[in-house]
Amino acid sequence: MQTNLENLKGNKFFLFCLLAVGFAVLISNIISQQIANVTTDILYMPVSGGLLIISAIIAIQFRGKGDHGKAYLLFVGFVAFWSTAEFVWFRSELVTHLLPFPEYADWLYLAGYPFLFFFSVYYLKPFRTAFSKKILSYAALATMVFLIPTLYSMYSNNPNASLPEIIWAAIYPIADAVVLFPAVLGLALLFKGQVGLFWSLTCIAIVLNIIADSGFFFLDIDKSYYSGNPINILYLWSYILFAFGIYSHVKLYKKPKKKSYDNVDELK
Amino acid sequence: MDEKTILTDNKALFTIAVEDALNEMGTPTLEMVTIKLFKEFKCSIPDCLEHPEYLKNVLNQVFGYADIAVKAKIKKNLGEFGQERPVNEFLKVLLK
Predict the structure, then answer these.
(1) pLDDT, tens only, A53-64
(2) Is the CB of B38 inside 8 Å of chain A's CB atoms?
(3) Searching chain A, which residue's CA lies closest to the CA of residue B63?
(4) Of B31, B61, B66, which has the smallest distance from its Cβ to A189's Cβ?
(5) Would the pTM of this model clear 0.95, i.e. be above it?
(6) With A102 labelled, which of A162, A208, B72, B79 sits at a CA distance of 20 to 30 A?
(7) Has residue A78 got a pLDDT over 50?
(8) Where does B3-95 sit in CATH, by number?
(9) DSSP for B1-40?
């Protein structure tokens, strides 16, 4: 695992992607909010589209066979919903300029969460006998650490909000916390293994989503949120982390090229 | 049956048990473990009956702490056959 993390640290493209996205959003924010809005919406397209392509590759490698084959198909479903949501968001902000509440994209984001959850369930199913009470309680604790303060601060900052407002504000952090639980289980079980890099990156990606969703909520209450706000860096980074996590599996399960021997006698 | 035939039969049953445990996750997982065994130890799954430490090492490299579950599945697949020699010796080393 340590070697994997070292490999990732040494992966210049990974660092380049994180830095490039971060700087692009920050610099565009310095220029103007309008440019920040356009830059961020455009950036979501290649980032989510790239993740969709990489997840389709791993799903094709497994061909839906076995628990992991089914899991990767579900992951493709999750990414398909989220990347479609990004496209819908892009279209309604930059093309049609129609922004109903809740946005159509919100329904697509929410539809993606069950796919991510069941992806984790199917992926971890072959390892179910390794779940100890200790690991389960660590995962539950990690989930609660993020969920309870977020829900508490949401309610305490906005006690006069109506029920639909509270539901819409809380639904994302709750969904994030639900998917964080199996992700922490996966990280705890597979951390030392070569397949564990994906789970490390997935956990960080989900935590980034929780922070971004909570941040979005607070900025929204404060009326200081605007489309293209630097908080979008966290959402963009979570896509990059998912993509590099899945890419680590693509590389791990890649079949080596068969050597062709010109001179068969050499083999004898 | 001579000793060689018994060993060949044992190896065939043993291979099915190990392959089934890995195939539960997907064919690429089985292929990856097979390739790693060959790359690192120049051996195949049937050879692991005599060298359980090779399989143990590869499973730990790939799955980390979750290798316990894969080993348990192999033991379950071996069933009563796991009490016979040399499979019981293989399991002793694998599960140690």
Answers:
(1) 999 999 999 998
(2) no
(3) A193
(4) B66
(5) no
(6) A208
(7) yes
(8) 1.10.1200.200
(9) --HHHHHHHHHHHHHHHHHHHHHTT-HHHHHHHHHHHHHH
